[in-house]
Amino acid sequence: MARQYPIQRHKQTPTGGDPLTQTAVGTVTTETFPKLLLENARVRGEKVAVREKDLGIWQSWTWKESADEVRWLACGLASRGLKRGMNVAIIGDNRPRLYWSFGAAQSVGAVPVPLYQDAISQEMQYVLENAEIEVAIVEDQEQVDKLLELLPQCPRLKLIVYDDPRGMRHYTQPQLLPYSELRDIGREYDETHPDFYPAEVNEGKPDDVSVILYTSGTTSKPKGVCLTHRAFIEASRGDVSFDGFNDSDEILSYLPMAWVGDHLFSYSQAMVAGFTVNCPESSETVMTDLREIGPTYYFAPPRVFENLLTQVMIRMEDASPFKRWLFDAFMAVAKRCGPDIMDGKPVPLFDRVLYAIGNALIYGPLRNNLGMSRIRVAYTGGAAIGPDLYRFYRSLGINLKQLYGQTETAAYVCKQPNGESRLDTVGKPLPGVEIKIADKGEILVKSPGMLKEYYKSPDASAETLTADGYFKTGDAGFFDNDGHLKIIDRAKDVGKLNDGTMFAPQFLENKLKFFPFVKEAVCFGDGRDMVCAFLNIEMQAVGNWAERNGLPYAGYVDLAQKEEVYSLLRECVDKVNEDLAQEASLSGSQIRRFLILHKELDADDDELTRTRKVRRNFVAEKYEPLVSALFSGASHCEIETQVKFEDGRSGVIRADVKIRDVELAAATEQRKAA
Fold this sequence. Notes:
The protein is α/β, with parallel strands linked by helices and 674 residues long. The chain contains 22 helices and 31 strands. The strands form 8 sheets. It has a 5-stranded antiparallel beta sheet. It has a 5-stranded parallel beta sheet with strand order 7-6-8-9-10, with helices on both faces. Strands 15-16-17-18-19 form a 5-stranded mixed beta sheet, with helices on one face. Strand 13, helix 9 (260-273) and strand 14 form a beta-alpha-beta unit.
């Protein structure tokens, strides 16, 4: 029998006859995003809605100004032929004008379809064709060039609106139109047709599709997930109530706009709670901008938190001996009692005093340097986070918690409540969420944020949803005795070694990626006699280590194959094996052999998705000679690998990849016997 977790219902304030009302937690309740925007403009019109850093200066727009911008853009798009039911591509970094493009499209009944800004043109072609895109709103010349290259394959595309005019002076294609010009056209249209915009907004319904978000396509072609206004707004209400967000909160929006998390946090929740969205100047200035803004609400995948910790540890290794001693001494105190202090648990007075001193000398300045001094709530998700990484941030006094969700559920399934943050769970079901565990361990979800359907794919919709309306997540997990959900791995990826030992590759990979020297890992073992692994080095961390140790190198390929680097990463693998040896069910899945790949796994080479998930099957096929060499006992393997460059050219990397054996750690029972 499948185990069902009790439903948690979210109590909503009755709205009476007025669809635009205020709830008890200070959020606005409406039917659609355009109506929600209009109410925000009425209720908190002079409050800052969005900021953008441009040329080193923060520019701000109020809710009223944002509502005006959306109105004029919507009128401009309508005057150029955008009609209800059409789809609009939105491509670029996080920019106010691109966020307004979502609202403008929705206002006239069109559906925004964000694309990953770092996708190559061939990847974009599939979405443009599948979603039947006729209008695209993009950030800059880079995105314009991609679309112009695709015009012969995508003749349906008739209008390309661009925000940043730099480099566009000599572009004369008839499909192109500057954003500023379209805005002016819309403003004139609004003046001559004042009833048009209100009528279009009022025609919108809560069950209309508000956005189509394409999945990352880890194992197949991306699918367009159709999510309604109701789904995102109800998911946002539940989130806002769960964590107590309000219009005084601030968030830094730096993750891809095509990702469901950014759409939930930076668009939907901002609309519901009325908090301020801050757009960094560029991907290179995110950390500087984070420190300047000091957000109160922050989300990052584990890899971002890992990179931040790596930078901290690199700086500490270059510090004076006294500073390193001081840092290590007080971090030991923080790890011992910091999480308990945050959760309000009893802590000895002496430890509290030491922690207070450490907060003044170490933790506070470090939080400030990371831009996290004002954070009330920080979340991570998308992959498991390493235990030491998790404890590090909570030890500093940063309220880091885990969440769980999918694109198909508007990323609204589980979160960890305050005071119940745990390393090995993703929290409890959010208000209104139902979860069942199927017989084979697969997690089934029914959420207020459920998808309406997959775009033009009724078979996929029917396959993904059960007869009683549950979404099949594809993840395997179970509930602990306290009602927290634990994720094991992707259900389809959990396998067995030939001796019957459970093989959970993602679990092993996440353990390896905790170490600052390991950027990516891919494990193999299903149906085999042992577990072997591919590793990618973290170039910054390993390069810094090499310089400190006087190890010369000519580049990534040279450094990755240094014997000293193999010894460094073998220590990481040994520690993972020691951890696995402590678990009876996992001790047999210790890593026996590994190699360091001669190139970084890259989304441009189809080895990763745009959300940085490994395409394990693709990697296994592409590097089949290396996989065979691992399991055959070979000590090295010569290989040629084709790579794609940013300008579209292709090249070949040749390398003689070394392979090294690893000794198994003694299982717990053996250690006790010894």
